[in-house]
Design a protein that fits this description.
The chain is α+β, with helices and mostly antiparallel strands. It is built from 9 helices and 4 strands. Helices cover about 45% and strands about 15% of the residues. About 25% of the residues are buried.
Length: about 220
Amino acid sequence: MNAPTGDALAALREAAQQGHRDLRARIERLSDDAIDLILRDARSHYAWSDKPIPDGLLEEIFGITINGATSMNTLPARFVFVKTPEGKDRLAKSLKPANVGKMMGAPVTAIIAHDMNFWHELPFLFPHEDRRHLFDGKDAYCEDTAFRNGTLQGAYFMIAARAVGLDVGAMSGFSNAIVDEEFFAGTSLKSNFLCNIGYADETALFQKLPRFSFDQVCSYA
């Protein structure tokens, strides 16, 4: 635990606060085009061009994703980028038949997983207070925290990929048990969902499905 204290902590807090003020002064909100790209008009894709994704772009996506908020800065998500023929063959064992072609055609498929032992890293990630005792021996709480926050990070990952110009197609039609045995045996990692990444072949798209209106699913209390 090497948390700053005293004047050093005060300086860091002031720098963080000023940094946020500067950001808000510089950018009030995203443009409508940017919002369309990452969410409003974004689509889940099922077919892909053969344009490759450089490793540097995957690293950039991770660099954006890791800055998304998680409770106590736990950051439990772990990512495996499956891109080799051998890796694809291993992953195909877990997929429902209808999803095999979608995965095989994508330049990269990310396994979004979470580490059940995420709390071991809290002295690094949350250095100003040791909160490991909240998780030690509490398997259900660890599972709940890891799954919730790892899922959040998976959503950040998808938005980040779209933000840098890629397309995504998340998949849940697979066996988590097979993925875990194939990729995470003997570790504390568990798979959550899969996400194909690449430059889409839009000819496989169909019309966008309906969405709820605000009044259908929102209320005030």
